[in-house]
């Protein structure tokens, strides 16, 4: 094994040191040739898993909306409107801070089974002009179902002209739909599809949608410069592969780097830097074990596999994520915020370019499903409960230490 464990990186992570969030350079993008990735190097060390993190300071949580049934995603529209998906299959609208009672008409029929249902929602970058929104959802039956991406126009009251842009390969059961959507600055759209659960080995096969990040144009056609376009054994939408189940994806506005959080096996949740064409290892190389306790693999890393920048042990069960760019929390500018379902927290990750340098935690006390920054420069989170909430994270001034009485 020619891979070193970089103790210094781990020491920084463990100590929770306050490294810079911002970075100067984007991660180097490999050639678009379908050649295997470079062997793990200094740029991608195998980093020892991180466990607990110190409490973040200077914030409080304020519930904004109550009574949401398993909300999955929130999107901010330009006109002080929020859209919130509920997994059961409802799209809700919040106007001027109030939840409109009637759900939006025109939502596609979804398969609300286990992890499936109505999932992500994002607005087109030019929503103000074209009124387009994009949704992911699970479709089909218990025995045969898949992840779909669709778009529709939203006129303020209902969805019109709903068009399915992509349908992932079918699978059974109700697990691992992936489903996070992310528009890139060039107007193309990334989205994640899970490994199919019982078909996980297909994550290493470029010829299907399982265990992938896929990239399409905003009309649903494959992006022209996708890395495996020229391969006859690959589907044209593949951007990256070897993923288990990505439910968090966000772009670092300072560097243009795309980051994703991935549900790993037991003790193998990951934060990854997403680099065009690369293999992220699942299920050949990974930390963690089966949820039954059984072994998956002895390989923590392999030639040609990009190592996770952070592995969380124990699992946080990562969900939505956001980069903070506002002015209300100057100490958090440029930091990454990753929701945790099982951990009932938001993880703050400080980055230095393409490395994670430190973590802090914002304990919420409910399963965190999504994290976004609002137009007011505050962070908003959704909690995955039958009576779920939209919660605003607000700054609090540090209280002066009590004076010591002699
Ligand atoms: Ca991995």
What would your notes on this structure say?
The longest helix is centred in the N-terminal third of the chain and has 9 residues, at 7-15. The protein is mostly beta strands. Mean pLDDT is 89; it is low at 1-43. A hairpin with a 4-residue loop joins strand 8 (145-154) and strand 9. The chain is globular and about 70 Å long. The chain has a single domain (47-395), classed as 6 Propeller (Neuraminidase). The protein contains two helices and 24 strands. Strands 1-24-23-22 form a four-stranded antiparallel sheet, with no helix packed on it. The protein has helices at residues 7-15, 127-130; strands at 59-68, 71-76, 81-86, 90-95, 98-99, 118-123, 132-140, 145-154, 159-167, 181-183, 189-193, 212-216, 238-241, 246-251, 258-262, 269-274, 310-312, 318-323, 336-340, 345-352, 355-363, 368-373, 379-383, 388-395. The structure holds calcium ion. Calcium ion binds at residues 270, 280-282, 286, 308.
């Amino acid at each position: 094994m020619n891979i070193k464990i970089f103790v210094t990186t781990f020491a920084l992570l463990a100590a929770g040191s306050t490294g810079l969030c911002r970075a100067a350079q984007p991660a180097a993008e490999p050639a678009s040739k379908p050649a295997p990735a470079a062997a793990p190097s200094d740029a991608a060390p195998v980093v020892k898993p991180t466990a607990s993190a110190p409490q973040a300071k200077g914030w409080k949580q304020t519930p904004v909306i109550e009574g949401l049934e398993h909300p999955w995603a929130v999107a901010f529209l330009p006109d002080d409107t929020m859209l919130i998906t509920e997994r059961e299959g409802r799209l809700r609208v919040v106007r001027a801070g109030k939840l409109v009672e009637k759900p939006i008409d025109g939502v596609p029929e979804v398969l609300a089974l286990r992890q499936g249902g109505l999932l992500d929602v994002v607005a087109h970058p030019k929503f103000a002009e074209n009124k387009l929104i994009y949704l992911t959802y699970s479709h089909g039956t218990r025995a045969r179902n898949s992840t779909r991406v669709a778009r529709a126009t939203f006129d303020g009251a209902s969805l019109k002209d709903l068009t399915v842009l992509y349908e992932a390969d079918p699978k059974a059961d109700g697990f691992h739909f992936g489903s996070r959507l992310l528009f890139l600055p060039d107007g193309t759209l990334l989205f994640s599809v899970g490994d199919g659960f019982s078909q996980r080995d297909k994550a290493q096969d470029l010829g299907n949608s399982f265990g992938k990040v896929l990239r399409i144009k905003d009309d649903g056609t494959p992006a022209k410069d996708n890395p495996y376009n020229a391969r006859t054994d690959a589907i044209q939408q593949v951007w990256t592969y070897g993923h288990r189940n990505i439910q968090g994806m966000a772009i670092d506005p300072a560097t243009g780097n795309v980051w994703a959080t991935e549900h790993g096996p037991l003790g193998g949740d990951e934060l990854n830097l997403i680099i065009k064409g690369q293999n992220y290892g699942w299920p050949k190389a990974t930390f963690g074990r089966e949820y039954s306790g059984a072994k998956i693999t002895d390989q923590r890393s392999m030639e040609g596999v990009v190592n996770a920048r952070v592995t969380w042990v124990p699992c946080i069960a990562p969900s939505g994520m956001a980069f903070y760019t506002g002015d209300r929390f100057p100490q958090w500018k440029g930091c990454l915020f990753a929701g945790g379902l099982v951990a009932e927290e938001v993880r703050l990750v400080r980055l230095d370019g393409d490395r994670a340098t430190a973590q802090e935690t914002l304990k919420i006390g409910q399963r965190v499903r999504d994290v976004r920054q609002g137009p007011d420069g505050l962070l908003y989170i959704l909690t995955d409960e039958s009576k779920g909430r939209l919660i605003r994270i607000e700054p609090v001034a540090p209280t002066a230490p009590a004076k010591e009485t002699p």
